[in-house]
Write a structure and sequence with these properties.
41% of the residues lie in helices and 17% in strands. The protein is α/β, with parallel strands linked by helices. Strand 3 (75-78), helix 4 and strand 4 form a beta-alpha-beta unit. The N and C termini lie far apart (34 Å). It binds pyridoxal-5'-phosphate (PLP).
Length: 242
């Protein structure tokens, strides 16, 4: 289907324009495809079109699509809330980066399993910059302390921060979330914690990627603007009750 290619072109162009406006190099911004609820076939088309970085929110979907996409080279990140008892399963599906690490209990469990398998894992620390209780992430005030704790776990390689901005039509409020994440990255980088690399800022989605890029995003995570509206509401993925 050509619509998918058109959508990908449009997103590329939006990223390019946003970079131009703020004097950034578009090569600094990676497009990650958020593929929750999307069938394997359109994902395959997008990968083949030159967008190999994809991410799921739930282990069950990761499992199904990992099997369906095994023959086509791509890179998997995980961007959903991860229960501690799902760690072992996550590690089965060669996920290159867990973007949603937000608590020490989960980090310790990961450390345990990774050490047993003699592996390491890249992670981003998810920060709740919007103050909404329905979204996961460490409180901004507790982020530095969490990074220090996780930095002591040798199997986990901290590469940066991730956030979901406020879902609001008030552009300034949305931008404040992204600005907060940028400032946190600078603050953490200034702490010079051994082993901690504050390279990535994963922020911005279909509706707010321009604001995120203006505030320094290095990874934007796009779903709907590429694959179309989802039937499942996001609360299914983002709800505390999960
Ligand atoms: C679904 C999702 C996205 C993409 O959202 P869209 O609005 O569809 O672009 C980005 N990040 C996370 C964590 C998601 O769950």
């Amino acid at each position: 289907m050509n619509e998918l290619h058109n959508n990908l072109d449009r997103i590329r162009e939006r990223i390019r324009m946003a970079c131009m406006k703020t004097g950034r190099d578009p090569r600094e911004v990676q497009l990650l495809l958020a593929t929750k609820t999307v069938a394997a076939s359109p994902i395959r088309t997008a990968i083949a079109a030159g967008y190999p970085l994809i991410a799921e929110n739930r282990i069950q979907e990761l499992k199904e699509k990992h099997a369906a996409l095994q023959d086509i080279p791509h890179i998997n990140h995980f961007i959903g809330h991860l229960q501690t008892n799902k760690v072992k399963e996550l590690l089965r599906y060669d996920v290159a980066c867990l973007q949603s690490l937000d608590r020490i209990e989960l980090a310790e469990k990961l450390q345990q399993r990774l050490a047993a398998e003699n592996r390491t894992l890249d992670v981003l620390i998810q920060v709740n910059t919007s103050g909404e209780s329905s979204k996961f992430g460490v409180h901004p005030d507790a982020a530095v302390a969490l990074v220090r704790q996780i930095a002591n776990l040798p199997a986990l390689k901290i590469r940066g921060l991730m956030t979901i901005g406020l879902l609001s039509s008030d552009n300034e409020k949305v931008r404040n979330c992204f600005r907060l994440l940028y400032r946190l990255r600078q603050e953490i980088a200034g702490c010079h914690i051994p082993g901690v690399v504050m390279q990535e800022l994963s922020m911005g989605m279909s509706g707010d990627l321009e604001a995120a890029i203006a505030e320094g995003a290095t990874i934007v995570r796009v779903g709907t603007a590429v694959f179309g509206q989802r039937n499942t509401p996001d609360s299914f993925y983002w709800n505390e009750q999960l």
